[in-house]
Amino acid sequence: MREKIIILDFGSQTTQLIARRIRDLNEYCEILPYNKFPFGDEGIKGVILSGSPFSVHDEQGFKTDLSAIRNHYPLLGICYGAQFIAYTYGGKVEKAGSREYGRANLQGVKEGDPLLHGVDNGAQVWMSHGDTITQLPNGAEVIASTDSVTNAAYRISGEQTWAVQFHPEVFHSKCGNQILSNFLNICGCSRDWDSASFIDETVKNLKEQLGDDKVILALSGGVDSSVTAVLLNRAIGHNLTCVFVDNGLLRKNEFTDVLKEYESYGLNVIGVDAKEKFYAELKGVTEPEKKRKIIGKGFIDIFNEEAKKLTDVKWLAQGTIYPDVIESLSITGMTIKSHHNVGGLPKEMHLQLVEPLRLLFKDEVRRVGRALGMTSNIINRHPFPGPGLGIRILGEVTPEKVRILQDADDIYIRGLKESGLYDDVWQAGTILLPIRSVGVMGDERTYENTVALRAVTSADAMTADWAHLPYDFLAKVSNEIINKVKGVNRVVYDISSKPPATIEWE
Questions:
Q1: Do 351 and 316 touch, CB atoms closer than 8 A?
Q2: Residue 305 has what pLDDT?
Q3: Where are the alpha helices (DSSP H) in 310-438?
Q4: What is the pLDDT of residues 139-192, one digit of tens each?
Q5: What phi, psi does 457 have (nearest 5°)?
Q6: Which residues are catalytic?
Q7: CA-CA distances (angstroms) from residue 187 to 73, 115, 194, 359?
């Protein structure tokens, strides 16, 4: 039984950061909806309650019964979690005079408290709340304050329940890692979660789960599906068959280049040319979600066809990772965008689903890939969306638009690599906009397409900032695209961050 910390998600935008910090401290953790606690899981070492966009007084605010958690596991409430514990057990939570947001410094840190071990008075933390705890529940004591927040941190005496009204998970809380590390110590965590242990455990589990069954894997050429393939190959060898589909929405020359790359891994790969199928099904479609679903269904149909050609295939493997799961399943009921590799398979496919990387963040996947001995050509590749260029062409997808975008994107990505900027960027890509504008080339007037260049920096794709690429580089790339790509006469650069924007445009 794998030991773990359970993070109950009350809807905070920073819940994923809590998980990242815990994982960085070499302890495995899982994010679950606030009302889906896994009772009976013997591996649970402790529980964290996240923040929330709601007030504890809101009718629609998320609330859950803590009676079977409190006093059974070490418990840490963060922001809303701290207020929820106080509110539920007799304290008072009231609207603050003004929203408490931004940097604050701890004072009155209680000496000897295990949660605040190594945290000094004056330590910087990050506040973000409109309510504040004005009265603690019975048996609780203050263990830290700030200038404006008396009950910045508290503990309920006689039990392992702590709460903080600030966010230790965010970068600006300089003592945040120390506090979370202290909580793991309180929980008695072994903190042995790393790439090597993940590989050993996952290979063992895959062997037990799959036995002698045959598996078909959807390869995309990206790091996620590639690591999935090598991991499965280590576990079941020849029983794995990989299918790499050219849906006509890949980057320029990607189909042939990636097939060559996989040869060194000893993978059994079938290449399928399905360009015309996808172009036909996408004809006339402009709505982003509909395009995603068509492309996703197209992949499933092809895998089903290939699986039928093989004997006794029982499983479909996919390179789903944690951000895919989190974005596709929102506790607020709002899906940001669907991911074609999340959410199960149509019944008629008659295949079970195996997702070895489902609980890993992207940088964890890369670490696992390196530990597996995979080359940097694959491991350091930027993320590429499952629907490919289909969602980087805004509006209807046509072969001519694909040609324009492939040529422009090839110049951009090659330029990043040649300039030594590729590895400084989390993800980069080119978007073909449904906009035509007037231009002048020589003595002729043109009326052609606009492309947008996108590049972001990030740690896990949950949040991202636009990459501050050098002006000289952007000027060079823009000039080369306009001069060499027939059909483009204007290039723009996207300077939006996530949130509020997403990394992809569709």
A1: yes
A2: 84
A3: 322-328, 362-371, 376-379, 399-418
A4: 999 999 998 899 999 999 999 999 999 999 988 899 999 999 999 999 999 999
A5: -110, 140
A6: 79, 167, 169
A7: 8, 11, 19, 21
